[in-house]
Amino acid sequence: MTMTVATMMCMCLLLLQLSITFFVFMCCVGNGNARITSAFVRSEFPSVDIPLDNKVFAVPKGYNAPQQVHITQGDYDGKAVIISWVTTDEPGPSKVQYGTSEKTYYYAAEGTTTNYTFYKYQSGYIHHCLVDGLEFDTKYYYKIGSGNSSREFWFQTPPEIDPDAPYIFGIIGDLGQTYNSLSTLEHYMHSEGQTVLFVGDLSYADRYQYNDVGVRWDTWGRFVEQSAAYQPWIWSAGNHEIEYMPYMGEVLPFKSYLYRFPTPYAASKSSSPLWYAIRRASAHIIVLSSYSPFVTYTPQWLWLAEEFKRVNREKTPWLIVLMHVPIYNSNEAHFMEGESIRAAFESWFILNKVDIVFAGHVHAYERSYRISNIHYSVSSGDPYPVPDESAPVYITVGDGGNQEGLAGRFRDPQPDYSAFREASYGHSTLEIKNRTHAFYRWNRNSDGKQVPTDSFVLHNQYCMIKYEIFSVEKYALTYIYIKDTKYHLYIIQDFERGIKSYKIFDLLTNLITCIRYYVLVNPSAVYVYICMYIYICVYIYIVN
Ligand SMILES: *[C@@H]1O[C@H](CO)[C@@H](O)[C@H](O)[C@H]1NC(C)=O
Ligand SMILES: *[C@@H]1O[C@H](CO)[C@@H](O)[C@H](O)[C@H]1NC(C)=O
Ligand SMILES: *[C@@H]1O[C@H](CO)[C@@H](O)[C@H](O)[C@H]1NC(C)=O
Ligand SMILES: [Fe+2]
């Protein structure tokens, strides 16, 4: 309060100068991205499926023994699982016995049995059993099948929904059933991953014909059981799940997939198992279907609009989207295939500050910078993606190792939006530490070892920098008129600090963020905002 008007003016000028310096500095940073096209191309094994008699496809012994056991989340928040398996000799039983200690099963749940034909292939009896009312953060043991051919497994429920709940997701895509697929799966199983986010294209059974399609779905079910029976795999569908095969009389899209891989879609008010959402620990995960209608007014579009409203970043700060076809892909394979869904949903991703979008489809690895292309229209605008702090990071992990082989041809030159790309097989992990930090890593399959190749710290889009809108009454300034235009004043507040404890350094840090934000929102008003912001910064400093 002892400051004179002159001192204040001096400070204003100083701040203005500093802010301009920072502004120039930021512009340089924006263009100084070091894009990487890794020269490494790694395919250890030939792109052929593992033979049917290999032990990874072994059928468990015993009459009507359960096989192809896999689990997925069974509700919105993680207190339920759906346990699925196949038996071949008779339809029953569909019962799951479970409990919290080994070999002691106090509880039981009854499931359902279904079966289908595909050409002349007759599926086994497919069992799905919802086990709900579980405790959070608890290890459960479960037993399926009967008599001496029953089998036992276990899983761990996630922690209760909490903004700081740590959790480790694995991300796998386009897996298939080759020796490369096996390598990916084994590496993933040696990671700390607790749940798999699967980005579509499961078995590649559609590469076969007639009865072999069903046979290869069964082998794939037995192949992934080693992981999928013990932890949830969160499913999304890819093009290899469509199986539109009119020449053999099969025209119902996603038939095998829908019979075999249930999802908890009703819990998120979805009308289709192909798109849905779950919440797990500190993450809200939205699963989209690239091969279902998504344009305006379609069920998927309407559902997604509603689901974004249900996202509560105070409870689940991490917002993750899964879809099969990547929106930002600079590989020759499937180039531009994501454009239609980008046009439909990209602006929502920006508006809702999605943290990360995982996709598959392209059999290589690629990571983008935070960029967007939402101002383009068919009649105007710049069609080139621009840096955008509100945009998600886009990651393509279609590199599970299926029989179609690697997508080795990247477009040259590497576009500005592409941060890292490499044509090798592997998987990713996303290690959420708390509400602000997650550690992301892509692990290449390399000579029988997994090699962490691309990694970065992911800062949460919602919690790191929280845009607070203060009422101006509070600071004697709500809005100002400049040339008859009303400008509202927004202050950006760092999440961890209250406005009262701002010091000059913090103000400057926030000033940078503020400018960045306004450049995005309203480029023409930057100067006005800078002046306004300096004014209020100084005001707050004096008050303190
Ligand atoms: C399902 O299994 C039952 C009992 O074995 C059989 O009668 C029926 O034809 C099967 N249905 C299909 C669609 O395969
Ligand atoms: C499993 O149980 C069945 C029927 O109870 C019996 O016939 C069979 O011999 C048993 N098999 C083994 C390996 O114990
Ligand atoms: C969140 O985790 C990061 C990385 O482990 C750590 O540096 C940071 O201090 C944590 N923040 C809080 C509020 O615990
Ligand atoms: Fe695909």
TrEMBL record:
The protein, known as: Purple acid phosphatase
Reactions performed catalytically: a phosphate monoester + H2O = an alcohol + phosphate
Gene3D superfamilies linked to this entry: 3.60.21.10, Purple acid phosphatase-like, N-terminal
Keywords, ordered alphabetically: Glycoprotein, Hydrolase, Iron, Membrane, Metal-binding, Signal, Transmembrane, Transmembrane helix, Zinc
Domain named Calcineurin-like phosphoesterase: residues: 169-365
Domain Purple acid phosphatase N-terminal: 66-157
Protein EC: 3.1.3.2
InterPro entries on file: Calcineurin-like_PHP, Metallo-depent_PP-like, MPP_PAP, PAPs-like, PAPs_C, PAPs_N, Purple_acid_Pase-like_N
